[in-house]
Recover the amino acids of this structure.
């Protein structure tokens, strides 16, 4: 998950292992490079709600950065109350305020993807279920993640990790894991027409 932004040409969300071992304590942070080819710098470590681990970052309409984070929990033991961790940086990713919980985004313990869309839109993809890795869904926000639509189900069965992208005409692409018995049997690619999202913008 690499993004380019007006204030940070190259930015990568990372997980930092604090101690060696089979289950090291992990902290979420970002590293960035203001000028391509120059040395990378690291942000302060994110905190709140046990910090989390796997992350995705997108730029908001006002230049702030939105980070969505997976909970630190065993698969099959989703967070309660359910929801997705997120934090918004207003200094280009140099620091991240304490993570908050967005209870409108149902999530098992799993990675998710986030992508800017249009002037003030955000896309979010994950298995939209509170307990199991099923129902790969793309949800759309017209207001920088303050609220989300009900989403479009890409695949109702077992599904896992995903990665979002946007074509020049506005069509949305998602690369994701799926299967019949397990969420990781194969990797599939789907495209959703821009009409699905522009119709919501024009309401």
């Amino acid at each position: 998950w690499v993004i380019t932004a007006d204030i940070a040409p190259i930015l990568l969300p990372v997980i930092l292992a604090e101690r060696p071992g089979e289950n090291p304590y992990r902290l979420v942070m970002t590293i960035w490079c203001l000028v391509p080819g120059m040395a990378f710098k690291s942000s302060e470590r994110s905190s709140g709600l046990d910090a989390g681990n796997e992350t995705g970052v997108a730029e908001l309409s006002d230049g702030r950065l939105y980070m969505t984070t997976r909970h630190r929990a065993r698969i099959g033991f989703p967070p309660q109350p359910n929801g997705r961790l997120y934090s918004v940086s207003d200094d280009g990713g140099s620091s991240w305020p304490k993570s908050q919980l967005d209870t409108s985004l149902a999530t098992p313990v799993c990675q998710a993807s986030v992508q800017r869309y249009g002037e003030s839109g955000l896309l979010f993809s994950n298995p939209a279920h509170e307990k199991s890795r099923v129902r790969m869904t793309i949800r759309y926000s017209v207001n920088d993640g303050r609220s989300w639509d009900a989403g479009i189900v890409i695949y109702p069965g077992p599904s896992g990790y995903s990665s979002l992208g946007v074509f020049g005409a506005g069509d949305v692409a998602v690369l994701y894991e799926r299967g019949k018995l397990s969420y990781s049997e194969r990797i599939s690619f789907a495209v959703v027409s821009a009409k699905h999202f522009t119709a919501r913008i024009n309401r």
User: Anything to note?
Assistant: The first helix runs from residue 195 to 201. Helices lie at 195-201. The first strand starts at residue 10 and ends at 17. The CA atoms of residues 89 and 96 lie 5 Å apart.
